[in-house]
Fold:
Amino acid sequence: MEPTKRELREVKRIIKRKGNQRLRRQLRQTLAENPDQANDAEFDYGRYRSSSLNGMDHDATRRRSS
Structure:
């Protein structure tokens, strides 16, 4: 059975929350270890990336009539 739109939205919400938590934790750690270069720190969301879920609900309810 395919997941419903509500389930897909919930999954995306969870992934985004986990990614944000990971980002904040890594920024705090970088600031504690190396405060001079914490401003330039880069972050990779890895498996908590939600970009693959963007635009997942393109069905008739989301289409606009021209």
